[in-house]
Amino acid sequence: MRPEISVIVPAFNEERYIKHLFRGLKVQTFRDFEVIVVDGNSTDGTREISKRHGATVVIDRKRNIGEARNRGVRSSSGEILLFTNADTLASSGLLMTYHELFKDKAVVAATGPLVPLEDTTRFIEFGYMFASVVLAKAAFAIGKPSISGSNFAVRRSAFKESGGFDETLFTYEDLDLAHRLRKLGAVRYVDDAVVATSSRRIAKWGIPRYILFNAGNVARYNLFHKPKEHYEPIR
Question: Is there a domain that residue 231 lies in?
Answer without folding.
Answer: no
